[in-house]
């Protein structure tokens, strides 16, 4: 299954204004935090309720542990990282960015793994296994990245450099991040 890009939206604001014309595989250029260049996100899924899920095309350049000390990656994404995206949008559009998180096992693979009962439905874009592989922003090679599911007491689920599901220790500091935005 090859999904072709039909549209490239030059900003999240433009995407929100023209969301009804979007298709899975389209690119949305998003201003993140203090970045000087816009970052490409892919329209990964469109629900029947008109909600779109965007997934960062590449991994963020900095590795991040899932949890270390008091630092919690999921909390950082939903708060500080989301705030960095919102500051680049007009205030009236802030409520349209529902969540910023990591994809779940089910959203990436379409089924549960490691006995984890994951949430969501498989994103259309991830039905092609090649789209599970991600390149790091500052590299030309694929790399590992976190998913949001807890796989056991100290392990979180992730995607390895070949696109397969794996489990890693929450404090692993060599794992990438591929945020997903939920846009209403």
How is this structure best summarized?
By secondary structure, the chain is an alpha+beta fold. It has three helices and 13 strands. β3 and β4 form a beta hairpin.
List low-pLDDT spans.
Answer: none
Helix content range: 10-25%
The number of helical segments is 3
Structural class: alpha+beta
The overall strand count is 13
Mean pLDDT: 89
Report the biggest beta sheet as strand number plus sense, adding barrel if it closes: 6 strands, mixed
% residues in beta strands? 25-35%
Shape: globular
Strand order of the largest sheet: 1-2-3-4-13-7
Q: Roughly how many Å apart are the termini?
A: 26 Å
Round the Cα radius of gyration to an integer and report it. 15 Å
Q: What is the string of helix and strand elements?
A: EHEEEEEHEHEEEEEE
Question: How would you characterize this protein structure?
Answer:
The protein is an alpha+beta fold. It has three helices and 13 strands. Strands 1-2-3-4-13-7 form a six-stranded mixed β-sheet. A three-stranded antiparallel β-sheet has the order 10-11-12, with no helix packed on it. Strands 5-6 form a two-stranded antiparallel sheet. Strand 10 and strand 11 form a beta hairpin. The longest helix has 14 residues. It is globular, with a radius of gyration of 15 Å. The two termini are about 25 Å apart. The mean pLDDT is about 90.
């Amino acid at each position: 299954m090859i999904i072709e890009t039909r549209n490239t939206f030059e900003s999240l604001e433009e995407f929100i204004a023209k969301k009804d014309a979007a298709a899975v595989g389209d690119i949305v250029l998003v201003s993140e935090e203090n970045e000087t260049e816009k970052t490409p996100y892919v329209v990964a899924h469109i629900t029947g309720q008109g909600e779109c899920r965007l997934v960062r095309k590449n991994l963020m350049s900095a590795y991040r542990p899932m949890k270390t000390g008091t630092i919690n990656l999921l909390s950082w994404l939903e708060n500080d990282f989301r705030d960095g995206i919102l500051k680049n949008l007009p205030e009236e559009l802030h409520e349209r960015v529902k969540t910023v998180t990591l994809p779940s096992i089910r959203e990436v693979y379409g089924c549960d793994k490691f006995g984890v009962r994951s949430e969501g439905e498989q994103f259309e874009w991830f039905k092609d296994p090649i789209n599970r592989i991600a390149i790091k922003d500052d590299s030309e090679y694929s790399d590992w990245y976190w998913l949001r599911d807890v796989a056991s007491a100290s392990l979180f689920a992730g995607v390895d450099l070949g696109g397969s599901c794996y489990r890693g220790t929450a404090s692993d500091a060599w794992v990438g991040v591929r945020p997903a935005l939920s846009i209403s």
